[in-house]
Write a structure and sequence with these properties.
With 226 residues, this protein is mainly alpha-helical. It contains ten helices and no strands.
Length: 226
């Protein structure tokens, strides 16, 4: 005789799915505000469930990060593709930078995982690899159009997102929109003008940005700390 028939098992399955959604929502909220530092115990506490409930749904922190942030990084790629469809190359780039910075300024966890290679698994890596070539096309199109200063590189874009995030970390509790001021200043500096002096340091090349992303561990080594 089975422990439960189909009808008696259904409420358990619904409860399990409800708990999974509860854990995901709590983790998104916690990582957005605290970055990737919290562990699965912290997520359980924030969700108001036992830590066993979290571990039954996600065997490791990496698995939880994949479930949360694959879509977030793909959202950045979707925005870049939308920007490529805009008829004006400069306005398309400006729109993308503003959208990217709004997301990364308000979601610390996404900012940290999108521009680091120290967290997540194959799904996060695939989303990161989808984003890179689209950003390159976006920058190259604006450069060819003549309104983007020629020294600008697609490898500068992650740094812009990180700068917007730093403003939010420093003063977001005082003015949640302050990051917009500095993004506007940065965008003005990106515009090509005849009176501009050359930038004092070259952008990172592809190998340089890859090395920086590989070594940046904002939440400490990997994510197998629980």
């Amino acid at each position: 005789m089975s422990v439960c028939d189909d009808s008696s098992c259904r409420p358990l399955r619904k409860d399990a799915e409800r708990n999974r959604k509860r854990v995901l929502e709590a983790a998104r909220d916690l990582f957005a505000s605290k970055g990737l530092e919290p562990n699965l115990n912290d997520v359980a506490h924030h969700a108001g469930v036992g830590v066993g409930t979290v571990y039954r749904r996600f065997a490791s922190k990496e698995e939880l990060l994949e479930a949360i942030f694959e879509d977030g990084i793909n959202q950045l790629a979707d925005l870049a593709e939308s920007a490529l469809c805009q008829p004006d190359p400069w306005q398309g780039l400006v729109w993308y930078v503003e959208q990217m910075c709004e997301i990364t300024a308000t979601d610390r966890g996404l900012r940290e995982i999108a521009f680091s290679k120290s967290y997540g698994g194959d799904r996060v890596t695939a989303a990161q690899e989808r984003l890179v070539p689209v950003q390159k096309k976006l920058v190259e199109r604006a450069r060819i159009d003549g309104r983007l200063r020629p020294e600008l590189s697609s490898t500068d874009l992650p740094l812009l997102a990180l700068l917007a995030g730093t403003v939010s970390e420093f003063a977001g509790h005082v003015d949640a929109e302050l990051w917009r001021r500095y993004v506007a200043i940065l965008l003005d500096g990106m515009r090509d003008r005849s009176d501009r002096s050359p930038l004092p340091v070259a952008a990172l090349d592809d190998d340089g940005i890859e090395a920086a992303m590989q070594s940046w561990e904002p939440a400490g080594p990997r994510c197998d700390r629980g």
